[in-house]
Amino acid sequence: MFSYNVIENCSNTIKIDDFDVDVIKDMIDYINIRKTGDVIECPYSLYAVADKYEIEGLQEASLQYLIFNLELDNAVELLMLADF
């Protein structure tokens, strides 16, 4: 985003209003230290934000968390995420 001549590069600011603050905080923590916590609070949203901003390692970590925690109760949500 900062490599191209776009508004974010000119202003050194990124406005993100389509994800919760906690999800953005987790994304920034991942970018800074390259690891996620043992418990991911919002794995679906974290996967979505990682997909939007092309953070492959975070996508993979979120996906692995979702697969490891797959249960009958969340199978439909995971199917919808896979379709996304």
Can you describe what's shown?
With 84 residues, the chain is mostly helical. It has helices spanning 7-11, 21-33, 43-52, 56-68, 75-83. The protein has 5 helices and no strands. The longest helix is centred in the first third of the chain and has 13 residues, at 21-33. It starts with 6 loop residues before the first helix and ends with a helix.
Rg of Cα set: 14 Å
Order of helices and strands: HHHHH
Strands, count: 0
Question: How large is the count of helical segments?
Answer: 5
Brief write-up:
It is built from five helices and no strands. It is mainly α and 84 residues long.
Key words describing this protein structure:
84 residues, mainly alpha, elongated, BTB domain-containing protein, SKP1/BTB/POZ_sf
Q: Can you lay out the helices and strands and say which pair or pack?
A:
Layout: H1 7-11, H2 21-33, H3 43-52, H4 56-68, H5 75-83
Helix pairs in contact: 2-3, 3-4
InterPro entries: SKP1/BTB/POZ_sf
Protein name: BTB domain-containing protein
Organism: Trichogramma kaykai
